[in-house]
Design brief:
The complex is a heterotrimer of chains A (140), B (395) and C (157). Chain A is α/β, with parallel strands linked by helices and 140 residues long. Chain A has one domain (3-139): Rossmann fold (3-Layer(aba) Sandwich). In chain A, 38% of the residues lie in helices and 15% in strands. In chain A, helix 2 (24-33) packs across helix 5 (123-139). Chain B has 395 residues and is of the alpha+beta class. Chain B has two domains: 45-358, Cytochrome-c3 Hydrogenase, chain B, CATH 1.10.645.10; 364-395. Chain B is built from 15 helices and ten strands. In chain B, helix 2 packs antiparallel against helix 3 and helix 6 (163-189) packs antiparallel against helix 11 (251-274). The two termini of chain B are 38 Å apart. With 157 residues, chain C is α/β, with parallel strands linked by helices. Chain C has a domain at 3-89: NADH:ubiquinone oxidoreductase Nqo5 subunit (Beta Polymerase, domain 2), CATH 3.30.460.80. Chain C has a five-stranded mixed β-sheet with strand order 1-2-5-4-3, covered by helices on one side. In chain C, a hairpin with a 3-residue loop joins strand 3 (52-60) and strand 4. The N and C termini of chain C lie far apart (63 Å). Classes of the chains: A alpha/beta (140), B alpha+beta (395), C alpha/beta (157). At the A-C interface, loops of A face loops of C. The structure holds iron/sulfur cluster. Iron/sulfur cluster binds at residues 21-22, 24-25, 59-60, 87-89, 94, 119-120 of chain A.
């Protein structure tokens, strides 16, 4: 494992990007930060800018307006960067699959490392997903 | 005229709610113009709903907004029930009211927490969100889910509330009331919050009427407008509660209206839970005859409006959705202009649409010398709070 | 004024403009009017009757484009729905936005999604659809068809 990845896993800073979600996934992400779940204990911090982040949390079904921005944003992330797709929307677009404004799923736009299913996934599931991600990177 | 600077806010921000793109034009510290571009969240739900049948549509529109995941199905089911004369069973009405009020509490708390965050009061954020978890627990006890409750269906509710769940839910609500009271008193008495929000971003009564502003946004401006009172649905005409209306229309009043409403909602929940009548929960609609139906209900942010046209088949031919923010958002034009940049964040926040945009602001000078990032703008707002605090000798 | 007086007044005042009057339920009336008269009727309802503008719904009925303007008079709990039917090939109607701020955005939305032209609208820019959405394609029309060849509509399983 490269030194960069090792450092990244110690304290992954996350940036949260909503591509036309229903907010539920986004709120559950925020919930992870608040006292009951408090993932800041483990060094995970919500970063205000993509340039400070190591992990990109993507929610929502990638509509036409945000798909372009997502691609641009992904180009700006300092690599290595891990992408986590949160919620059914960002996996297959769920029930928005036939929407005229959501043409392609997320993983056709940026590479995705972990999928966390659920609509919305509970905070516990999100934490479990991130833990799996860390394990996956560590063992690779 | 001083030099004008354009401040783009958004479209993406790390917190929540719809991405939107604001353009603030500022002259020095003053905001002289504001414009907004939405559409980053458009998923064509109205069209999607036309492909689903009446029952399936409930699930689609539940996912319009995670925070209003009760309001939209509620308005939609009422629209379908309005197409032809029918009665919803009593018990279903009570259950609907309970779920809708639970949602109002968690939505208002969510807002209060984030507003605190933008004022530089992370203590408020953490406290309020901790409290909100308790409400989500109540909802989980009652409906089995934290956010998307899936309780509604045209003609009634999908799931009953079990007798043995009522006790624990009531106990939980009672147990958080003292904390809520304490929190509200703390917010209302705090001199720093006063200094930051009183007289800031005033929406006048006339403007509120002409923009057709809704919900707490209009009630804080002295327009007593609440669908629960004006056109009672559910069991709101049978329980004892008060509509909260204040006069000033500034950010502080909007905070107060929302905070006091949570207490009223808790009162309604307690009354409904303790008087839940026995009986059927579903009217078992077999078909929807052709016709137009309109349903509107009071969501946490204001009136949610649904229009459904049926042609006698099993799907709506047209389903129009109007969320309250659609009407409240344009009021920025009247509230933000003339205020300072550091107050813009909290004014944008006060209407409860998408305050989090402010996290991704880049302020660009005309010559490109000065570039603030989004965090800096929130920082500006925080610094102002700190200055006020030190002037008051708090820190 | 109570409900009957308001409706009576509306009927006599705009006798020539009302094409159809449907008193559906105690809370709802549907009034079909000539499109040319929309401005007078809507302003009367909004300013004189002190109704609140709820929203407008645009509908493609295949024969015509129909727009319903929903107004609520809160004191008497009455919703007045003004219905206009426009020619489907060239739907044009006068904008209400110069008078009633609240109609500004919804007119932008209807013009985008259904292709109705609002004459005299102060600020007709895109509101919802993406910047690269083709001109002249209106997703809420009944005959909308997918134009994007790159769209993927299966779940890949
Ligand atoms: S997965 Fe569900 S909860 Fe998450 S954004 Fe999509 S619809 Fe909302």
């Amino acid at each position: 494992m490269s030194i960069k990845l090792k450092a990244l896993l110690k304290s992954p800073w996350v940036f949260h990007f909503s591509t036309g979600s229903c907010n539920n996934c986004d709120i559950e992400i925020l919930d992870c930060l608040t006292p009951r779940f408090d993932i800041e204990r483990f060094g995970m911090l919500l970063a205000g800018s993509i340039k400070h982040a190591d992990v990109l949390l993507v929610t929502g079904s990638c509509n036409r307006m945000s798909a372009d921005r997502l691609r641009k944003l992904y180009d700006q992330v300092p690599k290595p960067c891990l992408v986590v797709a949160i919620g059914e929307c960002s996996m297959s677009r769920g029930m928005f699959i036939h929407s005229y404004n959501c043409p392609v799923p997320l993983d056709h736009i940026v590479p995705v490392d972990v999928y966390i299913p659920g609509c919305p996934p509970k905070p516990e599931a999100i934490i479990a997903g991130v833990v799996k991600l860390i394990e996956k990177v560590r063992s690779s | 005229m001083g030099k004008r600077t354009v401040v783009p806010i958004g479209p993406f921000h790390p917190l929540q709610e719809e991405p939107e793109f604001f353009t603030l034009t500022v002259e020095g510290e003053r905001v002289v113009d504001i414009d907004v571009r939405i559409g980053y969240n458009h998923r064509g739900i109205e069209k999607l709903s036309e492909r689903k049948n009446f029952d399936q549509s409930t699930f689609v529109i539940e996912r319009i907004c995670g925070i209003c995941s009760t309001s939209h199905p509620f308005a939609y089911t009422r629209a379908v029930e309005d197409v032809f004369p029918m009665e919803v069973p009593e018990r279903a009405k009570y259950i609907r009211t309970i779920i809708a009020e639970g949602e109002r509490i968690h939505s208002h708390l969510l807002w209060a927490g984030l507003a605190g965050h933008f004022l530089g009061y992370n203590t408020v954020f953490m406290w309020v969100w901790k409290l909100r978890e308790e409400i989500l627990d109540v909802m989980e006890i009652l409906s089995g889910n934290r956010n998307n409750y899936a309780m509604f269906k045209p003609g009634g509710v999908r799931r009953d509330i079990q007798e043995e769940d009522i006790g624990p839910a009531l106990a939980k609500i009672e147990s958080i009331l003292p904390t809520m009271d304490m929190l509200i008193a703390a917010i209302k008495d705090d001199p720093v919050i006063h200094a930051r929000t009183k007289g800031v971003g005033v929406l006048s009564e006339e403007a509120a009427i002409n923009f057709s502003a809704l919900g707490p946004t209009s009630r804080a401006s002295g327009v007593s407008r609440d669908v629960r009172v004006d056109s009672p649905y559910g069991v709101y005409d049978r329980v004892d509660w008060d509509m909260i209306v204040t006069e000033n229309g500034d950010v502080y009043d909007k905070v107060v209206v929302r905070m006091l409403e949570t207490i009223e909602s808790a009162r309604i929940m307690v009354q409904c839970l303790s008087n839940l009548p026995p009986g059927e929960i579903d009217a078992n609609i077999e078909s929807v005859p052709p016709g137009d139906g309109i349903g509107h209900i009071e969501a946490p942010r204001g009136e949610t409006f649904h229009f459904v046209r049926s042609d006698g088949t099993n799907r709506p031919v047209r389903h129009k959705v109007r969320a309250p923010t659609f009407m409240n958002l344009p009021t920025f034009k009247s509230t933000v202009v003339g205020e300072t940049v550091s107050d813009a964040t909290i004014i944008l926040a006060a209407i409860d649409p998408c305050y989090c945009c402010t996290e991704r602001v880049a302020v660009r000078d005309d010559k490109g010398k000065k570039i603030y990032s989004g965090t800096d703008l929130v920082e500006l707002s925080r610094k102002k709070t700190e200055r006020i605090m030190s002037r008051m000798g708090i820190r | 004024m109570n409900r009957e007086e308001i409706l009576q007044d509306l009927r006599s005042r705009f006798a020539g403009d009302i094409l159809d009057f449907q008193d559906k339920s105690p809370k709802r009336v549907f009034v079909e009017i000539r499109p040319e008269a929309l401005k007078q009727v809507a302003r009367h309802v909004f300013f004189d009757l002190k109704a609140r503008f709820n929203i407008a719904s645009g509908i493609d009925t295949r024969r015509a484009i129909e727009i319903l303007y929903h107004f609520t008079i809160e004191d008497i709990n009455l919703m007045i729905n003004l219905r206009v039917k426009l020619d489907r090939d060239h739907p044009v109607i006068e904008s209400l936005a110069p008078w009633i701020e609240a109609t500004n955005w919804i007119e932008r939305e209807i013009s985008e999604l259904l292709g109705v032209e609002f004459k005299g609208h102060p600020d007709m820019r895109r509101l919802l659809l993406a910047d690269n959405w083709p001109e002249g394609v209106y997703p809420l029309r009944q005959d909308y068809e997918e134009w994007d060849e790159t769209a993927i509509r299966d779940r890949g399983v």
